[in-house]
Design brief:
CATH class of the largest domain in chain B: Alpha Beta
Number of strands of chain A: 2
Structural class of chain B: alpha/beta
CATH architecture of chain A: Orthogonal Bundle
Order of helices and strands of chain B: HEHEHEHEEHEHEHEHEHEHEEEE
Distance between the termini of chain B: 63 Å
Distance between the termini of chain A: 27 Å
Structural class of chain A: mainly alpha
Radius of gyration of chain B: 23 Å
CATH topology of the largest domain in chain B: Rossmann fold
Number of strands of chain B: 14
Shape of chain A: globular
CATH class of chain A: Mainly Alpha
Oligomer: heterotetramer
Number of helices of chain B: 10
Chains: A mainly alpha, B alpha/beta, C mainly alpha, D alpha/beta
Strand order of the largest sheet of chain A: 1-2
Largest sheet of chain B: 6 strands, parallel
Chain lengths: 344, 357, 334, 542
């Protein structure tokens, strides 16, 4: 039978749908706003919070976390998680510090490459186990969190690399600037920018979003899921390794415990930054903003002379607030879309 | 649903079970008699007893991989070698009392003769230490004491009074005789640091310190990064600060590192208690003019000798008993089983290269 | 008959039975080869060491079977420990503090449960948030201080044994709670519904199972048990501190997964989990007695965790490959 | 649509004259014939895609054995068979998801070995799956472009081109969708349309459609067919899988029939009657499809009054008496399932009342509905009806576990006995009760769902698309069962998109349109025209 009918649906370019996509962008705006409020309040209380030295300190402190958050955001977007980043930072920091203390003349670039390499190998192990061992990422990286840390402890055997054993140029790297921007901050900015552009404008980035949005559909769409997944884990590992080098350069003293418990900070930064834990949405620069917000809260509390014990509680409350906000936004979008489609 | 409320109920019942164990209702803080502590068999000392060889002496620092305690136990190892004993080092990766308890239990099982321990919590390790003592193991504390009733002797690196005075004196010197100073301590609860800071405050109340103003005591939790950030916070909050006094090796290193890399270098002095190896760089680049510390290796060394003397029956831990501690000479046990190492050493650019720990 | 055999075989080759066998093996081998392992005193020490993990693992198993997770348990433990110290300092009697602390734990669970089931937020993110929140509050309550002067009647009971013999007092508690949780999980309609929820929450909802409410109560129970463990922990170490039990959540999750519970929900058994906890504790204990450093324990724990999922996957894959090859050969000769 | 029982048996029945091995014969013969019919379209051209003697097993189950058939450029080829006949496995092999255990696939006469879906795509094969495979977080345009996104010179995504492309495709399909909106929240029909746009965008040389029309309205189906026809005329090879024979006759030239994983025949569609096809699919003759017996209705069991839910349905009222089957008809998206889910309490509603035997039911509580004697066999068996990983017995006893418990405790025996009784009653074909329910065929899974709910002893049975995606044989069994249940005094509400089923089974028909009751028809009034007229709210052109 043939039935003629005229479509009754809304015309193209519906304003509600456009508003819905606008809501996506508000998420990062929310963090910027929260950050601005916090800085303004703190600065009114103590104007030195806005001094050059203070801003520099905050950015330097954020750099390491932001580099790791970039890698973590990419992994989380694919609907996975990498809990081993703290341990990868530890093993990389110790490896690089040991190397540099034994070979005082090695240039900085070698240290950076070694850190990236160590991290990439650790990430590759994670990726292979997740993809080919079919072991959930949470389990794999919880396991390697223990394993990598154990390896570092066994290797270090209680020893420590002190600032005086490290070459001068390695230590000054953390504080040297180029055009007034410290190297550490510059590296973090480059990593964040590269990550953001890759995820937004390149095919592989969109494929990573697709994989997180619907893993089964990604396989069927012919996306090279294995390659991309390994890539995401290698990247996360490599960036944690890079963070290890930056850690060693900045703090000068490295023992086997370096970066213990960092994984929770990194995941917190990513979640606060608006990356959904079930993948498919969020941005790298949102995660970086999350890292900045968490760091600034820490230093603001110290400046505001608020009992430092509140810091952790505030971070926890912030994470919950962030996911509640995400939920609210998602709910609003769903409702606006439903209204649009509704015939009643 | 129904089922889960029942589960809840059973959990509650289990809790009541615990509660019901004390039939007398209402044990409060005031009514509780502190009856903890194993009854130690009173033994008499024989100063002339033969020093035993082959004693199993185990060191249990707050945590492994802490450079300061590494130096301490290093001294202990030397002493155990001199005593022809068996040296053992165990310890947790995190500075928590609960992991320490597991290690104490293991040492009991292994029937060590002496446990030399730096307690992460003065009370949490007590039950286990008392079990050890009940198993005829001598317990010596160093670095950080456990409750008096669960150890045989405590090696005190220096008297509280001495360190507090020394800190105040260095602060005055470094601040140039006047101005604001701040303290960057370990944890707000660290027994040692708090008692030193108390003495220091009493000193500061004296007329010769009247121009010094202690503006803040910050806590870096003996965590490198936290201490680093606290140092930043101090300078942001108190721009006129003249000196930071850090009575902890982690704190002083972190503060010195921050100052040396910031625009405050040369304007703000750092002093306190630190390890020469960690501080060498900052002393040489003039961030730090002077700091102090006892020789940590001597602590471990003395602890090993004290333990051996006790296990050999030469001493029991009673006040006034004397024993010989190898190269360090003769020591006398003070009140409450304390053995004081001696006065701290001050390190400056001139002498720092003579020390390697 | 062959039905039974096949069921039995599949049951015996499942990971939760392998882990039970492995655990027994480790216990037997260690008793013979490790000095001082098989002593009654060491048994007491081991029971005390596994007490917190095993108790928290009981509700955690249920939560993971429903496809959720609770990472805030160790922080709940810390918060109750802090509160216990604070209340004790306020002069409350220990008899009223203990139930109060369990209630505090349950309240922590209520907050988790509300955020997860009431607002529909992902449990992983929520409990990472409350992990930081509760631990932070613990520090707010007690700072870095410690409260230690709890009455010996209580601290002594936790570390003591029945009549001074070989059986630790807390073992009764462990056995009783494990029995209750085991029966609820494996032999009640409630337990059945947990598996249905974990495997397909929508189908469970369509079958009249109150999914949200069930999960909510699991979190409340999890919080209450964490509160109870907070009390026991405080009494065992005679020390109420804000950092008590830090990091324990990972050990518990590791033990539960090691016991064969699927992180995606719908699969797993309590006996497997109990074996997982015992295996981890016994291995650590034995290795420590053999003077293997604590660092190596990390590697063993992590490797076991990965293997617990990897091995079953690999065997299935190998079996499938082998079958396919046989088929191909059969086709080729045809 | 009504051919199934209306068409007289004018065509002689052909037995399976061509066994499976005779792949070459079947390939050559119809090709020549279709060449006769449509001139140059397929002619003597080689097959675009050839399936040659492939086999695939999952564990011990042989899903496909020795199947061969060719797809020619410019032809639309139907693949039919009961559920579990192996159609989806064939699709998945062609899509590169599964690799054949034995046998070969050939594209343009060359053997190919697909390592994954990417390889199949590269070979020009596009697949529309039964279940939509969209990325909910990405925009509609990105979904369509995924895999071959337009790039700028810097190899970055060209979003403008992407949106323009999507809009062009939607215009061609005549659907007003915004390319920039996220795919999340699209109705099933819209999702299916995006899938189709996706397949079109890849300009595939082979288009495989696995039941693409299940969720579409008649208008949308017609639009889809016209697009597919134009693709075919441009030289693409089309493979079309459907359970709706009228669609097969409308679109396809040739048909391949499969049964139990084996190839039965490949014939010209024009040479076969629908009954022929069914007979070959089932391998036996079928009795009448829709045997609802007339029963004198008893007292009112269910009363729904003024039920409304914002944005979903409004002011729905109807009642059902015992012994009666009331059908809820309407287009996909008219709100039929949503109404029944609200009645059962799975979904909430804003205003109105639901009464069972005169007693008002608690809102939003399936448990209260169950206690009052209601049962719901939901639309989506895999997501709503069953817990696939759990065993058959656990699934059957799931709503009854509380009743089966003694002193709150459950022991295996009572569950097993219960499950055994009910699966036997419904003649479910199964291996062991402890097997995961996911290992059963679609029809047997549906029987497990029915067993699960009939075991609760309901007074009112709601069945939502009771025969969707199950084979013809089981379909008849389900219909017979429903009829006999009604005869025993059960009140039944049936939601169905299949008009023949509605007309054959229902005592009364309630037609919904856009969330409102459009018509209430007695059995005598209900015809294809009257129901569709009400459902569409339009004139019906014959």
């Amino acid at each position: 039978m043939t039935i003629t009918s005229t479509p009754t649906k809304a015309p193209l370019g519906n304003p509600v749908a456009q508003k819905a996509s606008g809501l996506f962008k508000q998420r990062e705006l929310g963090i910027v706003l929260a950050l601005a409020l916090l800085v303004a309040y703190t600065a009114i209380d103590n104007p030195r919070f806005l001094s050059g030295q203070s801003i520099r300190d905050n950015l330097l402190n954020t750099a390491i976390l932001a580099v790791m958050a970039t890698g973590q955001a990419i992994v989380v977007i694919t609907r996975n998680i990498d809990l081993s980043v703290g341990s990868v930072l530890g093993i990389s920091a110790f490896a690089v510090a040991t190397l540099m203390s034994k070979n005082q003349d090695l240039p900085m670039i070698v240290a950076l490459l070694v850190g990236l390499g160590v991290g990439a190998v650790a990430g590759l192990v994670n990726g292979v186990l997740v993809r080919y061992g079919k072991v959930p990422a949470l389990v794999v990286t919880l396991g390697t969190l223990y394993i990598y840390r154990g390896i570092t402890y066994s290797w270090a055997g209680g020893s420590q690399v002190n600032a005086d054993e490290l070459p001068r140029h390695f230590l000054t790297f953390a504080n040297d600037s180029i055009l007034g921007i410290p190297w550490l901050v510059l590296i973090a900015l480059v990593v964040i920018a590269a990550g953001s552009i890759m995820m937004r404008n390149y095919r592989v980035g969109r494929e990573l979003y697709a994989m997180g949005s619907s893993p089964a559909a990604a396989e069927l769409a012919g996306i090279k899921v294995a390659r991309n997944l390994l890539g995401a884990f290698v990247l996360s590992g490599a960036l944690a390794g890079l963070a290890g080098v930056l850690y060693a350069a900045r703090f000068g003293t490295v023992d086997a415990a370096a970066g213990t418990g960092y994984e929770l900070n990194v995941v917190a930064a990513v979640v606060v930054g608006g990356v959904a834990v079930f993948g498919g949405s969020g941005t790298v620069w949102g995660a970086a903003l999350g890292a900045l917000l968490l760091t600034v809260i820490g230093s603001a509390l110290a400046v505001l002379d608020i009992n430092q014990f509140w810091q952790q509680a505030i971070v926890g409350a912030l994470i919950i607030l962030a996911i509640c906000a995400d939920r609210l936004v998602a709910f609003r979008i769903a409702r606006s879309l439903r209204k649009r489609d509704a015939h009643v | 649903m129904l089922r889960s409320s029942r589960t809840l109920l059973s959990v509650g019942t289990a809790a009541l079970l615990v509660t019901g164990l004390s039939a007398c209702g209402g044990t409060t803080k005031d009514s509780a008699s502190n009856s903890g502590g194993g009854a130690q068999v009173a033994a008499s000392a024989d100063p002339n007893a033969q020093a035993k060889e082959g004693l199993k002496i185990a060191f249990l620092p707050k945590q492994l991989n802490n450079p300061y305690s590494d130096v301490e136990v290093g001294g202990g190892k030397v002493a155990v070698g001199e005593l022809k004993g068996e040296y053992k080092l165990v310890g947790p990766n995190d500075a928590s009392a609960s992991s320490q308890v597991s290690y104490i239990n293991t040492l009991i099982q292994q029937q060590q003769d002496v446990i030399v321990v730096a307690a992460n919590d003065p009370n949490a390790v007590c039950p286990s230490l008392n079990q050890a003592r009940a198993a005829k193991i001598k317990v010596i504390t160093f670095d950080s004491d456990a409750s008096k009733d669960c150890r045989d002797a405590f090696i005190n690196q220096a008297t509280t009074q001495g360190i507090g005075e020394s800190l105040a004196k260095m602060a005055l010197e470094q601040a140039g005789g006047a101005g604001e100073i701040a303290v960057l301590s370990a944890t707000p609860n660290a027994t040692n640091q708090n008692s030193w800071i108390d003495v220091m405050k009493k000193e500061l109340a004296k007329p010769e310190y009247s121009k010094l103003k202690l503006v803040k005591v910050a806590y870096g939790n003996d965590d490198d990064q936290k201490s680093f950030q606290e140092a930043q916070g101090l300078l942001q909050s108190y721009p006129n600060l003249k000196a930071i006094v850090a009575p902890t090796t982690v704190g002083i290193a972190a503060a010195a590192r921050y100052i040396s890399s910031s625009s405050y270098k040369g304007k703000v002095a750092v002093t306190g208690l630190g390890l020469p190896n960690q501080m060498r760089e900052y002393v040489k680049d003039d961030t730090v003019k002077k700091f102090a510390l006892w020789n940590p290796a001597d602590i471990g060394y003395l602890a090993a000798y004290a333990g051996a003397a006790m296990a050999s029956g030469q001493i029991t831990g009673a006040e006034g008993e004397k024993f010989k501690a190898g190269k360090l000479g003769e020591y006398t046990i003070g009140a409450g089983g304390e053995i004081v190492l001696g006065p701290p050493t001050e390190f400056t650019k001139a002498n720092i290269d003579e020390f390697n720990f | 008959m062959s039905d039974r055999v096949a069921t039995l075989r599949s049951r015996l080759t499942s990971w939760d039975s392998i882990i039970v066998v492995l655990t027994v093996l480790v216990l037997v081998v260690a008793s013979f080869s490790v000095d001082n392992f098989g002593t009654s005193r060491n048994f007491t020490f081991m029971v005390l060491d596994l007490l917190p993990i095993i108790l928290i693992a009981l509700p955690m198993t249920m939560i993971i079977v429903t496809g959720e997770i609770d990472l805030s348990v160790a922080s709940t433990l810390g918060l109750t420990s802090s509160m216990m110290g604070w209340l004790w300092n306020q002069g409350l009697s220990i008899e009223s503090i203990i139930p109060l602390c369990i209630v505090i734990g349950a309240v922590c669970g209520v907050v988790n449960g509300f955020l997860i089931t009431g607002l529909g937020l992902p449990s992983l993110a929520v409990t990472i948030g409350t992990l930081a929140l509760y631990r932070g509050l613990a520090f707010v309550v007690l700072g870095d201080g410690a409260v230690a002067d709890f009455p010996f009647d209580y601290t002594g009971w936790v570390t003591g044994t029945i009549g001074g013999g070989a059986v630790p007092n807390v073992l009764i508690l462990i056995v009783a709670l494990a029995l209750i949780f085991g029966i609820v999980q494996h032999a009640t309609p409630f337990g059945r519904s947990l598996y249905a929820i974990g495997a397909n929450a929508q189908a469970a909802h369509f079958s009249g199972i109150r999914v949200a409410r069930t999960k909510f109560w699991l979190y409340v129970v999890s919080g209450a048990v964490a509160g109870l463990v907070g009390v026991l922990w405080t009494l065992r170490y005679a020390s109420a501190r804000a950092d008590n039990g830090a990091g324990l959540e990972l050990a518990v999750v590791a033990a539960v997964l090691l016991g064969g519970v699927s992180i995606f929900g719908g699969k797993g058994s309590l006996p497997g989990v109990l074996a997982g906890v015992v295996l981890l504790t016994a291995l650590q204990n034995a290795l420590r007695l053999e003077d293997v450093s604590g660092q190596a324990l990390n590697i063993v724990t992590g490797t076991l965790l990965v293997l617990s999922v990897l091995l079953p996957n690999v065997t299935t894959a190998v079996r499938g490959n082998w079958q396919r090859r046989k088929l191909r050969q059969a086709a080729a000769t045809r | 649509m009504a051919e199934a029982n209306a068409r007289p048996e004018d065509q002689p029945t052909r037995r399976d004259e061509q066994p499976a091995e005779a792949g070459d014969g079947t390939a050559a013969q119809p090709a020549a014939r279709s060449g006769d019919r449509s001139g140059a379209r397929s002619g003597d051209r080689p097959a675009r895609l050839e399936v040659h003697d492939v086999a695939k097993s999952f564990g011990a189950v042989a899903a496909v054995q020795g199947v061969s058939f060719p797809l020619y450029p410019g032809e639309a080829h139907a693949l039919v068979g009961e559920n579990g006949a192996g159609k989806s496995t064939i699709v998945k092999m062609l899509a590169g998801v599964h690799r054949p255990d034995t046998g070969t696939l050939r594209v343009d006469g060359v053997d190919v070995d697909f390592g994954g879906p990417g390889d199949a795509k590269a070979a020009g094969i596009a697949v529309i799956y039964q279940e939509p495979t969209l990325f909910p977080d990405l925009s509609v345009a990105e979904n369509i472009a995924m895999g071959n996104q337009p790039l700028t010179k810097l190899r970055q995504l060209d979003r403008k081109a992407m949106n323009a492309n999507a809009e062009r495709l939607f215009r061609r399909l005549g659907v007003p969708l915004d390319p920039a909106r996220p795919a999340r929240g699209l109705s099933i029909a819209d999702q299916q349309l995006v899938e189709i746009a996706k397949a079109l965008s890849s300009e595939a040389r082979v288009l495989i459609m696995d039941e693409p029309t299940a969720a579409l309205s008649a208008v949308e189906v017609e639009r889809l067919f016209s697009v597919v026809r134009s693709l075919r005329d441009e030289g693409a090879a089309i493979m079309f899988i459907s359970h709706r024979f009228e669609e097969i006759t409308a679109l396809c030239e040739r048909v391949t029939i499969m049964r139990d994983g084996k190839h039965v025949a490949t014939e010209l569609v024009a040479d076969l009657s629908v009954d022929d096809m069914i007979r070959r699919m089932v391998g036996r003759d079928l009795s009448a499809l829709f045997p609802k017996q007339d029963v004198d209705p008893g007292e009112v069991v269910l009363e729904v009054e003024g039920l409304s839910r914002e944005g979903v349905f409004k002011d729905i009222s109807f009642s059902v008496r015992s012994g009666e089957i009331v059908a809820l008809a309407g287009l996909v998206g008219a709100g039929r399932s949503e109404v029944m889910q609200a009645v059962f309490g799975v979904d909430p509603y804003d205003t109105g009342t639901v009464k069972l035997h005169g007693r008002r039911l608690k809102k939003g509580s399936p448990r209260a509905a169950m206690a009052a004697g209601m049962a719901l066999v939901p639309e989506d068996r895999r997501q709503q009806g069953l817990v696939m990983e759990l065993s058959i017995e656990r699934n059957v006893t799931l709503p009854r576990a509380r009743k089966l418990a003694r002193l709150g405790l459950l022991f295996g025996g009572s569950e097993r006995a219960h499950a055994h009784t009910w699966t036997q009653k419904l003649q479910t074909k199964l291996g062991r009760l402890s097997d995961a329910v996911g290992t059963l065929s679609g029809g047997n899974q549906q029987k497990v769902v029915l067993a699960k709910w009939l075991a609760t002893g309901p007074k009112l049975l709601i069945v939502d698309e009771p025969t969707r995606g199950i084979d013809v044989g089981t379909k008849a069994e389900v219909h017979r069962l429903m009829s006999s249940l009604a005869a025993d005094g059960l009140a039944v509400v049936m939601v169905s998109s299949e008009l023949p089923e509605v007309l054959g089974m229902a005592d009364r028909v309630v037609v919904l349109r856009e969330g409102r009751v459009a018509a209430r028809l007695e059995r005598a009034e209900a015809t294809e025209e009257s129901v569709m007229y009400a459902a569409m709210g339009q004139e019906v052109a014959a």
